[in-house]
Each structure stands twice: as structure tokens, then as C-alpha cells.
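dumping the sequnces here before i forget
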Amino acid sequence: MAQVSLRNVSKIFPPDVKAVNNVSLGVENKEFLVLVGPSACGKSTTLRMIAGLEEVTEGQIYIGDKMVNEMPAKDRNIAMVFQNYALYPHMSVFENMAISLKLRRYPKEEIRKRVLEAADMLGIGKLLKRIPKELSGGQRQRVAVGRAIVRKPLVFLFDEPLSNLDAKMRVQMRTELHKLHIKLQSTMIYVTHDQVEAMTMGDRIVVMKDGDVLQVDDPISLYNHPADKFVGGFIGSPPMNFMDGRIIKKESHFYFDEGKFRVRIAEDMVPKILNYVGKEVTFGIRPEDIHDKLYVSDAPPDNVLTVNVEVVEPMGSEVYLYLTTGLNTFIAKVGGHNRPQVNQDLDIVFNMSKVHFFDKTTEKVID
Ligand SMILES: Nc1ncnc2c1ncn2[C@@H]1O[C@H](COP(=O)(O)OP(=O)(O)OP(=O)(O)O)[C@@H](O)[C@H]1O
Ligand SMILES: [Mg+2]
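..and the predicted 3d for all of it:
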């Protein structure tokens, strides 16, 4: 069994760079866990501590039920795939894939069997005699993954393995790694700064920022229930729109008042915002939860507002509208048939059952 767990793990690089801050995480056996976050948030450092390439400043790391803080990297039975592949330039594909087994003195026949099996799985069986410079980026990436597979490790660690590939190849390799995970049934921890990769590949996603873990959840929960404004804005493309405004009560109803418009808060959200009546909050709405009123048959009048169209971006199956209230600019994602004119006024409808409210000071979701 290959669970990995981090218990209150911190990493401080001398003199005082806090790269990872009191992180506790459990990775289940056979899970595909993705660490995602902006540059310098501590993703690689976390992975390198699990691999044993970086010492832990505080806390414990367990692989299975063994505490591995003091265990050398080579004894951890973990294989890591890096962004830059790190292949030996003068060795053939076969030798690159075989080297770690050779160093561990595996019998020749076993090495051959494992390399051929992995090469077959990755579709590089015909490239075994070539050297790295005779391969495309995607092929080199497969060799780097193959080198990890042959070791049959307890845990695979991937550090942005696809970021050197062009967009199309990245999508293809993403699917292949996904299939590989299903085939190998091993525990994988995958680092990326690309939220689409995180959403499509992860069983669960860990969102990091400035060394802290902000939220750990499955992709859909993360998308629908972001714990704070950062996660709401980081996951999803185009990102969630944010507007500052005030919660107000009029007669027996509650509204979000932006200054230029006012929309009624859905009944089931009212209990959550009661403490914020009269106060400033940040309102969040995803682009797909904003609709052109023309195409909504029963728009509640309290959820309609008039905005001005600044930019129209046709994407094919959908259109991105950049809209302004005069105070705030935001994006709506509407159907491909929907083509308002630039500069025209447009009546839009907010799906108020899908909106989010965040505390202006803490930026945590109000719930
Ligand atoms: N060896 C080191 N010495 C000092 N500081 C370091 C060292 N390695 C990393 N850091 C710092 O630790 C922080 C986290 O770095 P890390 O490489 O883990 O980020 P990351 O999330 O992987 O970023 P990226 O997406 O850019 O790869 C950064 O501020 C970085 O400058
Ligand atoms: Mg990194």
C-alpha cells in the first residue's frame, strides 16, 4: 500500500524563505493527487521533500506507515519525472530507461522485459536505439515517464512534466498519463500551475499559495464551492468575476448592491449573509452563470441588469462578452449564436443560485 502523508510539514530555506508552511495532507493509495498554484507557491519543494531530495525543516512525511524524514531518496521507492526530462544525452532510449535498474543490479533479462513492456505501453517501442536529440519533445517526455515506470515504484511524482510541450501535445500526453494511471493503479502526485491540467487529471486537487494549502477537494467541489476568493479566481477559465458591493435589506428581501445595480439574493443563501447586512462584501459569479436576457424565458426581474458591451470575443461554440456596469467590468460566457454589438446596452440575467459571497477582509467564502 502506498499512501503518502504529510504532517505539519514546513520548509524554510536559509536564511528565512518560508517555501512550505505547515502543510498536512493525506494521499490515498492509488490516488492521482494534483498540487496546483502560481509560481513560487511551494509545489516543487513539497514534491522534492516527499522524494527525499530536500530536507524537511519541520513535521513528518510518511510513505505507507513508515516515517521517511531520514530515509535517503534512493531507498524511498519513489520515481520522479521532471519538467526538463533529465535524460542522458549520449545514451540510447533503451539505456536511458534501463539505467536505474542497472544501477540496482537487476538481472539483464528482467531489465529487458521491463523496458520493452514500458516502451510498448508508451508507444516508443520503435525508438529504443535512438538518442534523445533524435526525438521530439513529446517522445522525450515519454522516455522520461518510461524510465519511471520500469522501476515499478510505490509512488510516482511528476513535476510539471508537460510544460515544455506545445499545446496540442500537452493535451495528448495529459490523456495518456491519465490512461497510464488507470493501467498502473499506482499512487501519483502531480504538480502543475495549469488549472485545466489539474481539473482534468486530479482525483483530488490541492490548491497552494505562498506556501500554504488553501483547499483540498475533488475538481467539481473545488469549482462549485471555492473556499476563498483566490481559489474561486484560480480555478476556471475565463476566471470567476468579482465585484465589491454591499448587502442591503429592503422590506423583507436581501440584495447585493454594487452601486450601479442591485440583484436579489436567493432565499437559500440568505441565512449565510445575515451577519453581513449593511456591510461590504465581494460578490463572485462565473462567466457561464451570466445570460443574455433575450435567451432567458422567465428571468426574475430582480436578477436583471443593464450593462454596456465593451468587447465581443467569438470562440466558436461560445462567445465571451466583456461587459461593464460603469463601476465594474466582467466577462460573460454565452452561446455561439449570441452576438451583441460593441457599445450597445444589453440586459443580462445573473443566475443568483450560483453566486458566491466572500468576506472583504479575510477573502474567505461566507457560508
Ligand atoms: N534551494 C532554494 N534556496 C532558496 N530558496 C528556494 C530554493 N528552492 C526554492 N526556493 C524558494 O521557495 C519558494 C517555493 O519554490 P518552489 O520551487 O517550491 O515553487 P513552485 O511552486 O514549484 O514554483 P514554479 O511553479 O515556479 O515551479 C520560492 O520562493 C523559491 O524562491
Ligand atoms: Mg516548481
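The longest helix spans residues 167-184.
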